[in-house]
Design a protein that fits this description.
8-stranded antiparallel sheet; 12-stranded antiparallel sheet
């Protein structure tokens, strides 16, 4: 009897050595959680219970418990590497068609497979929440998860919808002496011009230009209409009225947009010649729709239509200057990188300045992490003891934040384990 009691101690010690050896072996394993051996004593009991004089029947290993404390963050050069700062597990699945996660890990060594899915070293798929729209503000569908896929090889073009032009027009300038209309090839027919590259629905570029003509005539004293300028709109050298009609040589006069300035040089009202005719305070106005074939007979794209804004344009007695010039269209772009913010949102960046929202990394919590079943590959599965999986977004509630370009190191203290050994 005494020999078997002593043998139970040797068996328990051997198990402890195995656990310690496994800890040492995984001291550099990403996302590994240190284990400890938990012992309990053993007593033989009869139907009447344990005798007060019972010496005991030895020891046994009650549990090999992993310690889910936070590991240190080790920074890398790969944006797809991720570490969780706080509670939670990465949600994984072995099936690319899965709608729920089946495996959980703290190891964030991710890569893109041949089909564009984000996977780990065991070829399990990283699960994510799908975006509700095209911007982060529209949020994500938290109730359903699916494998995260990076499939955008080109950034889709976006047709220009807004143009902003802020200029200063010199109050001392006069109208061209003989004015019969603006000719872009003849600088004597206008005072100044501002141009910006815009884009149609297929990403083709077009130069949108405004040609400015002072309405002050150079007599003594000056006549005409002071503090007023006419602006003529052109695309790729073709003249257009604000209603989108194409002005051709021999047609009626090219209709301008009139800018009326206050005596202090600030922009007062904007008048467009119709149809429709419109006079507004300093507010954006619409140009178009302009049929693409009127710009270029070989084009067959959606009609161009802009909201045009002169912003805080001024008329001061100083040289003509373009103070601001911008538009919101995009050409076709190529994928230049992937960004992951601390909330787990995954964004694709393109050479045209566009951004696609691909999804948000889904994290999972358990009421009892130590109840999870170890399945190897630094991964765990749900069990009855762990409680049901609770999915959520990084940074919400008890869920930790995502650190992109970093990996969570092993929690093993090698010196401590060697001393224990």
């Amino acid at each position: 009897m005494g020999f078997s009691v002593a043998l139970s101690g040797l068996n328990a010690a051997a198990k402890d050595l195995q656990v310690t050896g496994n800890n040492i072996a995984n001291s550099n394993t990403t996302g590994f959680k240190e284990s400890r051996t938990e012992f309990v004593d053993v007593y033989s009991a009869s139907v009447f219970g344990v005798s007060k004089s019972q010496a005991g029947s030895g020891v046994r290993v009650a549990n090999v418990a992993q310690q889910f404390n936070q590991g240190s963050s080790n920074f890398t050069n790969n944006n797809l590497d991720m570490a969780i700062a706080g509670e939670g597990f990465f949600s994984m699945s072995a099936d690319p068609a899965a709608s729920q996660s089946t495996v959980y890990t703290r190891s964030g060594e991710f890569k893109v497979n041949s089909e564009g899915f984000v996977v780990n070293n065991q070829d399990n798929y990283l699960m994510s929440f799908a975006p509700n729209g095209t911007t982060l503000d529209e949020g994500f569908t938290e109730g359903v998860v699916s494998p995260l896929k990076i499939s955008s090889t080109q950034g889709a073009p976006a047709s220009t919808e807004k143009i902003l032009t802020e200029v200063n027009l010199d109050a001392q300038e006069l109208k061209p002496e003989v004015f019969v209309g603006v000719d872009p090839t003849d600088p004597t027919t206008y005072n100044h011009t501002s141009s910006i590259t815009t884009y149609d629905s297929q990403g083709n570029s077009h130069i949108a230009s405004m040609y400015y003509v002072s309405q002050t005539v150079g007599d003594t004293p000056e006549t005409g209409v002071t503090n007023q300028w006419d602006a003529y709109f052109f695309i790729d050298g073709e003249a257009f009225n604000v209603d989108g009609t194409h002005h051709l040589a021999g047609d009626a006069t090219h209709a301008p947009t009139t800018l009326d300035f206050n005596t202090n040089g600030s922009l007062n009202t904007i008048t467009t010649v119709g149809p429709p005719s419109l006079t507004t305070p300093n507010q954006p106005f619409d140009i178009g729709p302009i049929t693409s074939t009127d710009i270029d007979s070989s084009l067959n794209v959606d009609s161009l239509e802009f909201s045009y804004d002169f912003g805080e344009s001024t008329q001061f007695s100083s040289a003509f200057a373009v103070k601001d010039l911008s538009q919101d269209g995009l050409a076709v772009g190529t994928l230049t990188g992937i960004d992951i913010d601390d909330s787990g949102a995954v964004l694709a960046r393109f050479s045209n300045g566009g951004i696609d929202v691909l999804g948000k990394v889904a994290l999972t919590l358990f009421a009892n992490s130590q109840g999870l079943a170890k399945v190897g590959g630094t991964s765990w599965k749900e069990t009855v003891d762990s409680g049901e999986a609770i999915s959520g977004q990084p940074g919400a509630g008890n869920f930790g934040l995502i650190q992109s370009g970093a990996l969570e190191g092993s929690t093993v203290d090698l010196s401590e384990q060697l001393v224990h050994l």
